[in-house]
From TrEMBL:
This is Transporter. Belongs to the sodium:neurotransmitter symporter (SNF) (TC 2.A.22) family. It comes from Cytobacillus oceanisediminis. Pfam families: SNF (PF00209). The keyword Transport applies.
Length: 447
């Protein structure tokens, strides 16, 4: 690898950083409420199937493109397919990450606000009404904008430190702690009276709820939760040492992601049913359920604060990858410093995120196709741009990129059987693109 490019210091650091990029709001915040509105167990099965058959091959593909080119997302496609329209794939990734971060940082701001409130003992109170508290936080314009700004400020500071001293150092210590605290939360949730109704809803599939739209949501969730489709992982893997096995690393990230998604469901739905919440509560589900869980635990306020701190970290490690793809695209040519572009990018994302932040207050009556700005941006990113980006990447690696380079990157330090490459290649060439196209057509009413 070229000497002027930073590298991850270890395989563990890369996996934890990639897992951090993947495991965040997608698995912990978004998965439970999307599953709640899309049939519970039926959605879970679709999500796992899409993650293994579509998400994992896609993650491997982005790793191959990034390390094969040893360039960030935009430059990678320029290098591998010069003077061709394929370079739009990297540009779409930067634009997509920009839009994604503009509403993702709003939720990150909510998490930050809740964390500060929990540390100050302001959430769990004898007469607490958690839905009303969440509504109060999200409907206060000044508070949501402060949360948005503070969340992006943390991102900017970490990204300015670079790969090893910023993203990797933050990720490899805190991600394991998140797993431990999540397991504690699940154990407590499962001991609540009425919890088994929630487990049944989450694990017992109701296929009557399966529609083209719910399938699209499951597909979009598998992309969203793994941070694939926008070439974020192309950028991350461009810093990866050649000795590391790409399939093994990708497999580790996927297993951790599915595990955390299942833990999220087992932590949330038992409480939803035990406390009488609605499974289809929407984006606020987690913010209403978490305090209810911890209110039943001795020293609940303390544990809620600790968990929210770790949840905030998981949220941040995901947003790091989004800001990194934007920043790295502008510093690759060496004309601009990482510090300067990090600050400029953060400020522009903040400005773009203001309408989403005000979607539950001042702009509550403003809608786009029947959705507020926050929900419309979420739908555009998760259900249209992410699958579109994934389709382009699948076609690129199958039909445009050098087959020898692809095979070399796949097989380096790979102890898996040769059949694995053939299987992955078949999935990327046929199953992935056809699945994306079919679900799209079904959603648009053509099937």
């Amino acid at each position: 690898m070229s000497t002027n490019r930073e590298q991850w210091s270890s395989k563990f650091g890369f996996i934890m950083s990639s897992a951090g990029a993947a495991i965040g709001l997608g698995a912990i915040w978004k998965f439970p409420y999307v599953a709640g509105t899309s049939g519970g167990g039926a959605f879970l099965l679709m999500f796992i199937a899409f993650t293994i058959l579509i998400g994992l091959p896609m993650l491997i593909s982005e790793f191959i493109i990034g390390r094969g080119a040893q360039k960030e997302a935009v430059s990678a496609y320029y290098k591998l397919a010069p003077n061709s329209w394929w370079t739009i794939t990297g540009k779409l990734g930067v634009i997509g990450c920009f839009l994604l971060l503009s509403f993702y940082a709003v939720v990150g701001g909510w998490v930050l606000i809740y964390t500060v409130m929990a540390v100050g003992g302001q959430i769990i109170t004898p007469d607490a009404a958690y839905p009303e508290l969440f509504g109060s936080v999200t409907s206060t314009p000044g508070l949501t904008l402060i949360g948005l700004a503070a969340f992006l400020l943390i991102n900017i500071i970490v990204i300015t430190f670079g790969i090893q001293n910023g993203i990797e150092k933050a990720s490899k210590y805190m991600m394991p702690l998140l797993f431990v605290f999540f397991i504690v939360l699940v154990i407590r949730a499962l001991t609540l009276e009425g919890a088994m109704e929630g487990v049944k809803f989450f694990l017992n599939p109701d296929f009557s709820k399966v529609t083209g739209e719910s399938a699209l949501y499951a597909l979009g969730q598998s992309f969203f939760a793994l941070a694939v489709g926008f070439s974020c992982m192309v950028t991350y893997s461009s810093y990866l040492d050649k000795k590391v096995s790409i399939p093994a690393s990708a497999g580790s990230v996927v297993v951790m992601n599915i595990f955390i998604s299942i833990l999220a469901g087992l932590a949330i739905f038992p409480v939803v049913f035990a406390f009488g919440f609605e499974p289809a509560e929407g984006p606020g589900l987690l913010f209403m359920v978490l305090p209810a869980v911890f209110s039943q635990i001795p020293m609940g306020e303390f544990f809620l604060a600790i968990f929210l701190l770790l949840f905030l970290f998981a949220t941040l490690t995901s947003s790091f990858s989004m800001l990194e793809i934007i920043v790295s695209a502008f510093i690759e040519n060496g004309k601009h410093t990482r510090k300067k572009i990090s600050w400029l990018s953060g400020i522009v994302v903040f400005a773009a995120g203001i309408p989403a932040a005000l979607s539950f207050s001042l702009l509550g009556d403003f809608t786009i196709f029947g959705k507020n700005v926050f929900d419309a941006t979420d739908f555009l990113v998760s259900n249209i741009l992410l699958p579109l980006g994934s389709l382009l990447i699948a076609l690129f690696i199958s039909y445009k990129m050098s087959k020898q380079l692809v095979k070399d990157e796949f097989t380096i330090s790979n102890t898996l059987s040769p059949a694995m490459y053939t299987t992955w290649s078949f999935l990327m060439k046929w199953v992935v693109p056809i699945t994306i196209i079919v679900v799209f057509m079904s959603t648009l009413g053509f099937i």
